[in-house]
Specification:
alpha/beta, Rossmann fold, 8 strands, globular, disordered N terminus
Length: 255
């Protein structure tokens, strides 16, 4: 096993006593979301901050987003293609490389061996310092794709660090130093961000034009989409006790 450590990972800790702020700027960050735009919502401002500090940012999207509409007449494959193009535009706004699309069917994500080995290959190719994804342990989560996304990413992370898994990939094992879970059941870490980072996050979300009616509550022809989103984002990101802005996570470093 590569880089073996003593002790067990404390994935299920519910303690909020040890709050942390701002991990060291990573050399390489890999953010993995269930759907196009999940990453922007979950950690877009943090990725923007790191990109401006020199971090190499990679994004992977697990599903094709074909069900991101309430319009029953919408062609699902056409929507999937639109969402892929939107995700590419949003990644560029954040300062990330073009996304890796795993093309699983939206709403039907499963932790299959095929998906896990593809993610292991991604881990071992990108070799991230920090990984960001959904919290699979969030209680009462309704959307299965978000829950399973966290599970499959963590499964792949564990296998990517162990030489005995998937030797046929001919890629050396890798182990990140930190895992940041967004939409976390227990938030014990804050990445402090500034207003321009939040503005960039809003600008990236605006790229997902197909989601205005279904997810954002905006008209397709909304002239002030970025400002409306920014206003809402600032309310969520405000740290009331300090006046700072932050994106909040569950931080795991025993990897």
């Amino acid at each position: 096993m590569s880089g073996q450590r003593d002790g067990l990972a404390t994935y299920l800790s519910t303690s909020t006593a040890n709050q942390s702020t701002n991990i060291e700027t990573p050399a390489v960050a890999l953010a993995i979301g269930a759907h196009p735009d999940d990453i922007e919502f979950g950690c877009g401002a943090t990725l923007t901050k790191w990109a401006q500090q020199g971090t190499e940012i990679h994004i992977a999207i697990l599903t094709d987003g074909r069900r991101g509409t309430w319009d029953r007449e919408q062609d699902q494959l056409a929507l999937s293609l639109s969402r892929q193009n939107e995700a590419k535009a949003a990644a560029a706004v954040l300062g990330a490389s073009s996304p890796t699309f795993l093309q699983q069917i939206d709403g039907e994500l499963r932790a299959t061996p095929n998906l896990i080995v593809r993610l292991v290959a991604l881990f071992r190719s990108v070799r991230p310092t920090v990984v960001l994804t959904h919290d699979p342990w969030k209680r009462y989560r309704l959307h299965p794709d978000h829950r399973i996304a966290g599970e499959v990413v963590i499964d792949a992370l564990v296998q990517a660090r162990d030489e005995s898994f998937w030797p046929e990939l001919s890629l050396p094992a890798t182990r990140p130093t930190s895992l940041l879970l967004f939409e976390a059941d227990v938030e014990d870490h804050s990445e402090i961000i500034e207003l321009p980072h939040m503005q960039t996050k809003a600008d990236a979300l605006v790229c997902h034009h197909s989601q205005y009616p279904s997810s954002y509550g905006l008209a397709l022809d909304s002239p002030n989409a970025a400002q409306e989103l920014l206003t809402r984002l600032l309310e969520v990101a405000s740290e009331s006790d300090s006046g700072l802005l932050a994106e909040r996570f569950k931080l795991i470093t025993d990897l």
